[in-house]
Request: fold
Amino acid sequence: MKTKLFAAAFLAAGLGMSGQAAAKDGLTLGIGLEPPHLDPTAGAAAAIDEVVYQNVFEGLTRIGPDGSVLPGLAAEWDVSDDGLTYSFKLRDGVTFHDGTAFDSADVLFSINRAMAEDSTNAQKGLFEPIATVAAPDAATVTIALKRPTGHFLFNLGWGDVVMVAPESADTNKTAPVGTGPFTFDRWSKGSEIRLKRNDAYWGDAAKLAKVSFKIMPDAASSAAALMSGDIDVFPNFGAPELLEQFRADPRFEVVVGTTEGETILSMNHANKALSDIRVRRAIAHAVDRQAIIDGAMFGSGTTIGSHFAPHHPAYVDLTGMYPHDVAKAKALLAEAGYASGLKLRLTLPPPSYARRGGEVIAAQLATVGIETEIIPVEWAQWLKQVFKTTDYDLTIVSHTEPFDIGIYARDSYYFNYKSERFNKVYAELTEAVDPAKRKALIGQAQTVLAEDSVNGFLFELAQNGVWKKGIKGLWANRPIQANDVTGAYWE
Amino acid sequence: MLDFVIRRLTVLAATLLVAALIIFLVMEVLPGDPAEVMLGLNAQPDTLAALRAQMGLDRPAPERFAVWVLAFLSGDLGISYTYDVPVAELIGERMGVTLPLALMAILLSTLIALPSGVLSATFRGRPADTVIMGIAQLGVAVPNFWFAILLILLFAVSLGWTSAGGFPGYEDGILPALGALLLPAIALALPQAAILARVTRSAVIDVLGEDYIRTARAKGLSGGVVLWRHAVRNALAAPLTIMGLQFSFLLAGTVIIENVFYLPGLGRLIFQAIAQRDLIVVKDIVVLLVGLVITVNFIVDMLYAWADPRLRQGDNNV
Amino acid sequence: MSDIRSIAAVRPRPGFSHRATHHPGFVIGGIITLVVLLTAALALVWTPYPVTSLNIAEKLRPFSAEHLLGTDHFGRDILSMLMVGAGNSVLVGLVAVGLGVGLGSPLGLYCAMRPGLISEAVMRASDLAFAFPALLTAVMITAIYGPGTINSIIAIGIFNIPVFARLTRGVSLSVWKMEYVTAARAIGVPSLQIARRHMLPNIASPLIVQATIQFALAILAEAGLSYLGLGTQPPQPSWGKMLHEAQTMLYFAPMLAILPGACIAVTVLGLNLLGDGLRDLLDPKLRHAAKPRNT
Reply:
């Protein structure tokens, strides 16, 4: 035993890979994807927000761990009775990391920049309802809307609407300058991004002095990095098959939270066979959701029956509408004229839920006589072939934006789904203000989608966090794609 | 000789230009628009157009090729589409991983291969030779990525001595950084060592059969002196040439090993760049690698020509 | 992986019988190769379990009587997958080498017999091809045309063309200059007839030896591509892909990674031994005929 220990120590020292206990005011997080750059107002990549949202950049409002809207750089606000004018009172004494003061001029600049013709903001839709922005004085901003917008304050909390300064906006991609409790320290491309505490922060100073985001694109090496102590926390661990070993390890806890990721088998309604509701229902019957969760996700995830997150208060459980039933599926296919079989393409983007889930679904569809050709693609091709030109039959993808049921009302969304019934419900919903009525309409919207069997609704992705024991103040859930470490501390 | 060098240099330059053209054309047909990838799912058409114009993607292909080549020649490798930093900087940063990795692998394989090759040659036909050559045969057959996984399985999973991948960077000192490269270097070195050991063995055997060695022996010099002072020294040319040739291929071979160990090196960069349609990075790296291979071959040719004047006249392609 | 095998050939030992049955490397290599080929053929018609149907209730079973080598994360029988994987590897190897021999050798022969602008261009093109790191180029090709068995075969096979073109040209040139060929040319025997009667028999041996080695290299290359997710696609099993899938499961199912890798290593070993053995048996002087080639 002694010699073994000695040998281990020797080798570990020799290899220099021994995990050093992290200093208690530093935190190392693992993230799966490297952000392309660090300006959340100029890119759609969730990986940007996962590093800088709330930590480096702040917006007028912010999203809390439970998905609620909290005050951010705006301390308070008033909404006019007609819901068209918002008046924000900005906080005092806020400065950007470069020392310049934050005031209403910066808000004007940020919003106008995002709305400009040549803007590269990825979520221009968030700004679309805005008619005018004005700054009556240095601490006040008023925003007039074209029409009432229920989610406007929530929308202002998105990473794409964070406040930037005119002096630094152009260089935020590589040297982000925000108002948050952490300042950007350095970025070793392909390996890690470091932040350090902003001692001039306007609010409560962060408890951590240093935060490092290590880029760990692969599950196996992430697991090893956690085990060796190179990483303290992996907020959203990609490989559910590896969780058991962390559950069994007293040094870690596995925190299972929720995400906004509805994982669906998207169907192209422009395909002749898939435009037939009987075929879509047959597919729904052919798919065994639990088997997909067990086989592809190693038990991690919650079945869904429509495009809606189960933890949402307005969720309606529709998972029983199409029980797994091979005979029923075959009968429906025969009725639709595909008794002799059907051949479809199944285009799969890179994440393992899609690649592995696709293998399971292909096998399940084969049992009812639907032959699938699996086409694995990179995200670039997926965006082009599936999302943009809708040259696909079936695909698997997780829709991770919060409350995104509205995509089914869009004209040319990649499902090519057109339903007067759904559009009517959704139009009513966007105008509705009464909470009870809203809830009922959200329920109706879910039911319409399930009845139309628009897509194969599979499961809600779980957020599987692996945390070293003793770390507190992190988010267990993922109401937006971010790793807010502003409240994190070691016990 | 000068004439020969100029002729070969012209060929070298032409080859590089053709290679650059091929790479450019290949990139042209790659499906997927880098601007779209950068903006993601909800990109608006006007945003896309703005970005495409900003990236120069709206210019005609021949113009882009000329711009790229001329800039490349002046040392400007362009700006990465995805990282928004100069490609040269990116490559330099990644070289900080790949270059030490490749050097360590070369060093390791030499340290293993030369002694075993010489040993094998001296004990030719005896059990030691059979064992060493058996291991070498195995070493050539084992895929390096599988060997890498076995190393991870042993040292990271079973023993828990090392991490299964990743790179700590150089900020925490050079030792942990080099330490993280050790397993990958071993994985890369094994097949190289196997090949090198076999080359060394046959080269030493060839030299041992030469007349002057027999003369030396006949003169009564001891076996050790003959072996080390004459045979090995003269036999080193072949393995050293192979090593020179292998180095550039080793750089490319790191693609797969860097993927196994998740090292942020050149190989991973190009793999990611292909996936993310960061075309300028792909083009630059491939041209650099191809250029490296061509240049190394050129240097080897030159050295041979310098050593053997007959080669300057004739055809040396066989 | 690189290959300098051709240079580093095991030298025939003095007093060593050249009869195949007494060449241990040849015998072992031959047996391994034969077993792999037979397994591949058998997998075409029979496997213990179907490899495309999943049985998630049976996942990650250890070795047992029902599943000799256990099951994977989808409950598929590992033995069956390895058998089909053998078929896949053999297919890739055969087609990739076939492509090289089929296109490369005629080119090389032509270049040897008809020196001139075209030959020069062909040889320059093959020089150029050698400058491209093969694995990297295969990655690019599969990225462009989409991953898959056929595309990876093409990506691997393309690089066999210059290999065989150079080899054939090299060997043919020396034959072409031999006196009896010169004599045949002098009396006006048609080129095609010379090629058939004198050249082909002489270049057959080195081609066979090189083909065996390229076969092994093709299997390695396909495994590498599949490992990177660019080669064979599901539901078709392949050794490289099995290895890729197994990597996240190393902690609880190491066999899933060990078995397919061992299959690759043993197959490549067998082919290399066979190649070396053939080289020794057919003509020891051929050691320097083949040029090193990397993947």
User: Anything to note?
Assistant: Residues 191-227 of chain C form the longest helix (37 residues). Chain C touches chain B through 56 residues (CB under 8 Å).
